[in-house]
Write a sequence for this structure.
């Protein structure tokens, strides 16, 4: 039998039962599409997080109060904070040659009001260097001025959203707003710049770190952002930070230093694992489609018993019959996979439109893998029915009408 | 030439053993016209299946053209069926989704004949059986007689030496039955061996050699040894 004839014969056989065939193609298509789409979502999440981290700044180290046992892992979830990080700790770090910039950060929440308008806003206390470290840019005015960080100037810089909600279209520059029980002069507005690690930079008010500490009546820092003097300087900067703080904290290693690379690679590993497991779950739907194919092919074999008997009487050896039925399963899988690809592209397109900021794209390997897995599923689950067909006794098969 | 020597075929149904064929000796020469008669359950179909290599005897030797078929593998037997034997069945056994032409083409597809050659041979076969304008009809659009003619065209398209027909007229009215028999006899006149199982004594009479089966044994044979 010629390969072309096998394909033609099997295709004709499939079209002999259109409803059943279409249902099987649909099952296969959904399986393939869900593998591709879920992989695309996982991959999108990975890219999203990677982008977030790169927007955090380059050669960044984050100093957190509290010690973590894991080195270079994600921030500790549990653990006591034996000693606060202070502004003096932060300032002592700048002495290391491996460190280019440093920005201490205090975070709190306070009501901000202007005239009658009033809003609860996250207040970020920091220094002029935050501007460079976080790659911020201004829409209006200027950022917190450089100068002695221990002096609390009564100035503030607003996020874009806060400015719009309090001032509308008016320019806020030079205006006085009330934050908590203090008054601050607005000197600048941050440019629109999406999210950055969960903190919406449009929805904050930045004040000098000393002002924030006075406002919240604390001397502790939330964390210190440190920018190393280049990529190679990152480990050196980490060492310098640890030893400086140890000295200042009477020999106690009670801070955690997270490097951006370590954080990124951890998240990357987590997200790759997540993508794979989600794809694995989706692959289960493919095997469900496979079982469906097996089931329906078994029905087909028993419905077409006399046809199989006839083919044998006409001189088809068992291998031909096996090939014919396997070809049917393979054709079903491939057509299903084809529709699955189309479905996945449509879904991808729809998701990309619904969530434009989320970078969703199916990786090429996922497309190939999905089609391959579909084909394999069809063949593996097609073997049992095909073998049953090939082993039919022709006399018995023909005696049934 | 078909040579059956001491053929036995036993079916085991539960505790009971059914001797469908026992001690059958039969030699049929090329070009003979043999009818097989006998009461229901006497083993006619079983005999035909053995001769057509659809069934293997439990004992005895069956040689076809001096070739011991019992020593052939399943695939070799399939190849012999493909090239040397044509079957005509009581229930036609046409593939319902295929047209007449495609049903006739089927043996050639299985044998791997070239598509162009297939088309011309199908055309010729259908025309010679008066089915030219029925080429594109599916079996359910044909009368019983037409269906059996398509089946005969299919059985003979590979130009086999032997045509085995199991009650080919069993499902047909008299007129179309006679028509079908005449077609088969024509083929026999051109040199094909025709072995036909029938219940109809009138049809049996037309054969040059009549074999009678009773309880799996040949009780009478008008020709040969
Ligand atoms: N697969 C089988 N299993 C068990 N017994 C069988 C099988 N095939 C045939 N037989 C038995 O073998 C005997 C001969 O059967 P066969 O079909 O050859 O009869 P027949 O002469 O063709 O009958 P009919 O005229 O009704 O077609 C019967 O008794 C039948 O019951
Ligand atoms: Mg019978």
């Amino acid at each position: 039998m010629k390969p072309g004839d096998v394909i033609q014969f099997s295709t004709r056989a499939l079209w002999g039962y259109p409803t059943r065939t279409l249902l099987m193609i649909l099952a296969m298509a959904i399986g393939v599409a869900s593998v591709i789409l879920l992989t695309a979502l996982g991959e999108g999440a990975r890219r999203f997080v990677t982008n977030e981290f790169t927007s955090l700044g380059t050669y960044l180290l984050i100093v957190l109060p509290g010690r973590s046992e894991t080195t270079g892992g994600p921030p500790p979830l549990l653990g006591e904070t034996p000693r606060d990080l202070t502004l003096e700790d932060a300032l002592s770090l700048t002495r290391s040659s491996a460190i280019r910039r440093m920005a201490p950060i205090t975070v709190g929440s306070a009501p901000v009001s202007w005239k009658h308008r009033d809003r609860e806003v996250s207040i970020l206390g920091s220094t002029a260097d935050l501007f460079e470290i976080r790659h911020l840019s201004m829409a209006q005015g200027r950022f917190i001025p450089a100068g002695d960080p221990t002096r609390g100037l009564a100035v503030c810089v607003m996020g874009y959203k806060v400015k719009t909600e309090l001032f509308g279209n008016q320019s806020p520059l030079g205006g006085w707003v009330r934050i908590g029980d203090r008054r601050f002069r607005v000197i600048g507005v941050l440019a629109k710049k999406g999210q950055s690690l969960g903190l919406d930079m449009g929805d904050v008010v930045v004040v000098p770190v000393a002002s924030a500490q006075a406002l919240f009546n604390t001397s502790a820092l939330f964390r210190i952002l440190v920018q190393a003097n280049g990529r190679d300087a990152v480990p050196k900067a980490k060492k310098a930070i640890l030893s400086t703080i140890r000295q200042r904290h009477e020999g106690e290693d009670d801070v955690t230093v997270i490097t951006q690379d370590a954080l990124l690679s951890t998240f990357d590993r987590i997200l790759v694992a997540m993508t794979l497991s989600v794809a694995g779950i989706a692959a289960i739907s493919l095997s469900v489609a496979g079982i469906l194919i097996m089931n329906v092919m078994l029905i087909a074999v028993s419905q077409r018993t006399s046809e199989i008997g006839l083919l044998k009487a006409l001189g088809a050896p068992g291998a031909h019959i096996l090939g014919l039925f396997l070809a049917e399963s393979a054709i079903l899988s491939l057509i299903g996979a084809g529709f699955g690809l189309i479905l996945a592209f449509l879904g991808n397109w729809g998701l990309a439109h619904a969530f434009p900021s989320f970078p969703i794209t199916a990786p090429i390997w996922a497309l190939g893998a999905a089609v391959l897995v579909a084909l394999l599923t069809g063949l593996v689950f097609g073997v049992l029915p095909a073998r049953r067909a090939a082993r039919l006794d022709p006399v018995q098969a023909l005696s049934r009408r | 030439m078909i040579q059956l020597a001491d053929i036995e075929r036993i079916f085991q149904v539960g505790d009971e053993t059914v001797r469908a064929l026992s001690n059958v000796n039969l030699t049929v020469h090329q070009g003979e016209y043999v009818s097989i008669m006998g009461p229901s359950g006497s083993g006619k179909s079983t005999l035909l299946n053995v001769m057509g290599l659809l069934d293997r005897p439990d004992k005895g030797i069956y040689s076809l053209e001096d070739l011991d078929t019992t020593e052939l593998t399943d695939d070799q037997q399939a190849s012999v069926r493909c090239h040397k034997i044509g079957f005509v069945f009581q229930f036609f056994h046409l593939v319902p989704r295929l047209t007449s032409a495609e049903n006739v083409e089927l043996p050639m597809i299985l044998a791997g004949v070239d598509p162009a050659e297939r088309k011309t041979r199908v055309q010729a076969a259908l025309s010679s059986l008066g089915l030219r304008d029925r080429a594109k009809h599916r079996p359910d659009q044909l009368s019983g007689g037409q269906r059996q003619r398509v089946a005969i065209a299919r059985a003979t398209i590979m130009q086999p030496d032997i045509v085995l027909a199991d009650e080919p007229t069993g499902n047909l009215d008299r007129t179309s039955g006679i028509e079908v028999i005449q077609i088969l006899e024509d083929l026999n006149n051109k040199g094909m061996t025709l072995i036909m199982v029938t219940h109809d004594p009138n049809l049996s009479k037309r054969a040059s050699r009549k074999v009678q089966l009773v309880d799996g044994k040949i009780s009478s044979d008008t020709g040969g040894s």
Observations:
- The two ends of chain A are 26 Å apart (CA to CA).
